[in-house]
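Box S2. Input/output pair 1.
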Amino acid sequence: MLNRNTGTQDTSAPRTLAVVAAATLLVLAVFSMTVVTIGETAQEFGSSTSWQTWALGGMSLGLASALLSVGALADRFGRRRVFVLSSAALAASTALAAAAPSMSVLVIARVLEGVAGAGVLAAGLGLLGHAFPSGHARTHATGIWGAALGAGIAVGPLVGATLGRVGDWRTGYWAQAAAIAVLATAALSLAESRPAGEPRPFDPAGAAAIAIAMTALTAGLTSANSSWTSAATLALLLGGVAAFMAFLAIETGKREPMLNLELFRRPLFVASTSGAAITGLATVGIMSHLASVLVVGLSTSVLAAAGILAVWSVTSTVVAFQARRLPARIGASERLIAGLVTSGVGAALLAGLATSSSWVHLAPGLFIAGVGSGLANAALGRLAVESVPHADAALGSGANNTARYLGSALGIALVAILLTGGGSGATGIVGGWNHAALVAAFLNIAGAAWIASSRVFSARATHSRASAMSEG
């Protein structure tokens, strides 16, 4: 592979890909393991449903609040440096979760895991964007990155359920903390990655505003699981909107903003951020609750629930890895649209569940949804680095993943409301699941239609400008 700056063979690129993919897998494993351990954790601490929701959503809060800012920091101060420091912080916060003496400390640890994971994801994808030029090499690399997302979601619940049988819910956290520490050490050998020329000045006011906005919005959505009309929920949501408006005002007035709002005129950037948000909202939201539905609604064991969830996540991993074999003429946006449509079909097939159903009823929908997720994840990884200038590769990753995890927080809250709205007990949660599956199907299809229409309108506008210039 040729180095984009020197034209010489870049022998470090395969090592960069291996470390970044492994780190991505571990971040998602830490993120997803809680779905099968939360029941035992809540039982040990005697925690309410509200605290369980905060433990489930805590990492989404940390991710959404930090991704954009840490992406800008990585582009300015060095992507490898931020990647290594974030990996070390993720190991420490995961160890804190393992040693947590109370549910409140666990929630704090989960938020810190999210902040650290944000640095790993944003800087890692920025490292890939630097190491792999556009074309087949980048398609291959981002396909593996997308596969790592699915693999992490598969590995996390399986690790939590399996090690929970050997020890308890803490064992999985200790194992993951050790693995991340080893990876942080391995990352020290990677080549540093910075944009050529003078780096963009860091924007502390913009970074503070977007961090406050994403923290308040994600916390508000998590609080909404208890009540949409409570004073705390309304204050957080309104405060988040106000902080986001302040962020837009700050960025509009700067010569070199942290996030150039002109990027939203780019169809690829719109596809990247909106596609990530829909993936989080529709897919991550519903899959985060699947284990609970299986345990409570169908009386499966925690380990069996983790294995059933793997039908979706393993399929997603395989498809994302193989997506690089698709013809080059099928662009990343088209792959994303196809992935969302396929995910929608799969989600629709997950409906119609009854308490007497076998888990096999879910298998076709999980498989098809996995195909869709794999296509979408591979496309989103490529879009994240191609939709922004090369100097902003980590920022592009941050924007993409911010949208994903803010969408995840909303999706988790929405599905929780639908599940509890069906009534109490097994019958209620299964009925709520059927409604949630249909909502997820609608959101995926609507998202695909939105991205397709935005590309059509952009193409028409470009054609109109070109025609006007030729006539002039």
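Box S3. Input/output pair 2.
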Amino acid sequence: MKKIHLFMGSIFIFLIIISCQTVVLDDADMVSWDNHYREKSRVGDKGPGTLVIGSGSSDVRVASLIYSPENTTVRVADIYYPRAMDLHEARGAVIMVSGDTDNHAKDYYGRTLKDTDQYMQWGQVIAEEGLIAVTYELGNPQAALETLMTWIVENQKYLGIDTQKIGFFSSNENGCSVGLETIVKDSTKYTGPKPVFSIYYYGLMPLRSKEVFTDIPILTVQTKDLWGRGLPASMEEFNQSAIADGAMIKALYYPEGEHYFDCREDTPRTREILQETVLFMKDNMEH
């Protein structure tokens, strides 16, 4: 299995301009694909590493769509589609939950989070496996996820997304904290579609007194700590508490693994975890 290298000259982008008063699409908005990712637009630090999984193909389509209205701040979501997908059909989608702000990401990486290698390459892998992946620009992480999901529900028939088959992939300290709200009963921070699965990579899981749905499959991946923040202990506490409540958790352990191991390390164990993650996505989308 080869490392993925995104040569963006072969990826097409679907560019839509919509009214500043609304983010609801209509039939006229799904008409054209354009070449968006050009080598000259990818200068500077692209973010952490190169994801080690997938076919090595970059033959996917990426639609760049405005999901947040102009009367707040214009934000764009990138939707990764399988190349062979008919845009009039509906497929399950994996939302790549972000927990950082784009202002911080631009200072650190020189680009928004959705344009760093980790998000772009996971988006590609998910689309290669026949699902849709969604990454997005953001300010406030929790508010952005809520806005994004409202937009997806309102525009599902134009986006080709089956909102009965939404999965969430959260990583890092803040990303997992935001993504956790998608499986919390009676959450006031997330009111979108109930997910068919939720994945948490090396993050902070502040469950506290919150109860999670026991019928949502959950995958956690625990690595070693980052800067002494107590991330493994937090995830283990979440695992034990949720399991005691009857939650369906598949816990994967990689105690010597680095933060961002999924796109920085290429070992038999990292490949195994990544493959199990993709199978977890696909299996739970089919049920």
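Caption for Box S3: The radius of gyration is 18 Å. The CA atoms of residues 67 and 151 lie 6 Å apart.
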